[in-house]
Amino acid sequence: MKGYGSGGVSAAAQHVAKRRWKGQVAAVFALFVFSLLVPLAFLLGLHNSFPSGYMADDRSQQESSFETYRNVDRGRERFPSEGDQQKLPNHKDKFAPVLPKGVDSVPPEELNKRINKTVSPLSTLESKNDRSQATAKDNKSKTKGLVDSSGPLRKPPSSSTKTGVEDRKQNPDRGFSAYETDISCEHEFGSYCLWSRKHREVMKDSIVKRLKDQLFVARAYYPSIAKIQGKETLARELKMNIQDHERMLSEAVSDPDLPPLVGKKIKNMDNVIAKSKSCRVDCNNVDRKLRQILDLTEDEAHFHMKQSAFLYQLGVQTMSKTFHCLLMRLTVEFFKSPSVNMQHSSAYKIDNSNYVHYVIFSRNVLALSVTINSTTINSEEPNSMVFHVLTDKQNFYSMKHWFARHSYREVTIHILNFDELKSNHFSNMGLGELSMPEEFRISSHTTTQPSPLQMNTKYLSVFGHSHFLLPDVFKNLKKVILLDDDVVVQKDISFLWNLNMGGKVIAATEFCEVKLGQLRSYLGATGYDNNSCAWMSGINKIDLEKWRELDITGVYQSLVRKLKQKNDAQWRAAALPVNLLAFHGHIYTLDNTLIQQGLGHDYGVSEETVQNVAALHYNGNMKPWLDLAIPKYKKYWKSYLTRDERYMEECNVNP
């Protein structure tokens, strides 16, 4: 045929042979380039950044739902799980959130200590990881690291646990034991730590902890075992046991939640871990994985600690649904039915200096009723008592209706709307809403050993900004006795009315556990005696004439202008320096046995002291009308609570 001769090759065949030759050359060239790049990659150490683990597609739906969140404020920010790691680019910086720089510098014994502490009981975890969150809180209150206003409701600390990771980057050998004390926990989370320690429930979770320990070790060995040639069966067995453990832990919090075959699964995991340890693996990879798991666990524990503290603060700072119901019912009933005008029959007493005048700032009708009831019951002359109550417009009508329905030994109760007074008489002072007595948590170091182990945390209550209007609100009165609405009076305190204060403006109990010199960075360097004690609100007598003579309100306004508050939090925090400086040198010291302070945060007050003291002050977050109150003190408050109130029963109010 044409084109085929002896020993001849067609043109098509020559073209195919030429293409095959070019393909072989390209393949050889690619192999040559790859043979150069692979050793170069290992020389540069890039193999250490390759993600390890099994594919997310291999995991069950239930297992792949495990996530660890780092930050409350920024929403859900996930840590990369083992399944997710396969989806990440092969760059070392992707491991920065979970693997701090310089972790290799941590000695093995320190790593073992940290692992033991991580898997220790919850009591250890709760008192751990002081991340210096108090600094952020104090900046909000302009306290420069010492004073924290516990009044405003705050979100969880804005700095995420990534901040804690950065701290470990800078100082991996930081002494963790110094932060495992109750004092450091209280310094960071306040009275939540006091409450959580007293209400901690012992969980039966020893088997659950054993499963978690096994899971940590298995996860650390799996990436290395999966890379060993000839160990495919062991890697598959290890992976199946990891999935079984994760499945059990996803459904169990305590030992009773575990399935019946948990003992067999623990034994299987022990066997497969023993096999894994017998293999020759790269210890750096195992160490690396353990450190990653450790950091994740520490961050997760600290996140849950912050979340619990925030929920606690939410519970103590907000009004419950039942209390809100009572407030609404009383307000509605005030407008539905004509209330008895209490003030009409006894209006002549309101400005009469021959009567004993008490002033209370309050937004809580139940707390107010207990304070008035306890004071009148234990008074020898209740007919001579006049109570002036300053409240806001939201609670004004509910309080008027409450005291129209209930009488307390025929005392005179005068309800004032602070918002109306402000708009009519004090609009030029730039005041905000009604200010209640402010409570502060003060943490300071001892002078000998300034460490977290030597932190002193004290609680202090002072006047709110609205208290500085008392001489203007009660222009016709010469003196008043001021009560907080979280005070229970157990004995007659009318002797304070005739007390000679020696020319002082205010009578108060001193709180010498906090000296003004300790607050130098907050109060300034001049204008006061460093050895002077702080003072407490609760029960105070005020000489209004002396107040007007010394123009304490003018001093207050001058101090407020100097502090230059930019927001509501700074405005409230300014109450502490304003009170301590404005009344400095004008305090008449009352006997400390008159009133027992701290029943809203201190569990250590003896029952004998509580029974014998003249008055009880529940300053602190754990107010007696809350479910979070300290039980052994709550009964003294409830004994003066109004009973058989229809609206309380309908709203299910049972404090």
Could you characterize what this model shows?
The protein is α/β, with parallel strands linked by helices and 655 residues long. The chain has a 7-stranded mixed sheet. A 3-stranded antiparallel sheet has the order 1-5-6. It contains 26 helices and 13 strands. 37% of the residues are buried. 45% of the residues lie in helices and 12% in strands. Residues 1-9, 42-106, 114-146 and 149-180 have low confidence and may be disordered. It has 3 domains: 15-44; 45-317, no CATH class; 321-428 and 464-591 and 642-650, Spore Coat Polysaccharide Biosynthesis Protein SpsA, Chain A. The chain has helices spanning 11-44, 82-85, 108-118, 122-126, 133-140, 161-170, 182-189, 191-198, 206-226, 232-251, 262-278, 283-317, 321-336, 342-345, 365-377, 393-405, 418-425, 470-473, 520-523, 544-550, 552-563, 568-573, 575-582, 607-612, 631-638, 646-650, and strands spanning 147-149, 356-361, 385-391, 412-417, 438-445, 455-462, 479-484, 487-489, 506-515, 533-543, 587-590, 595-596, 615-617.
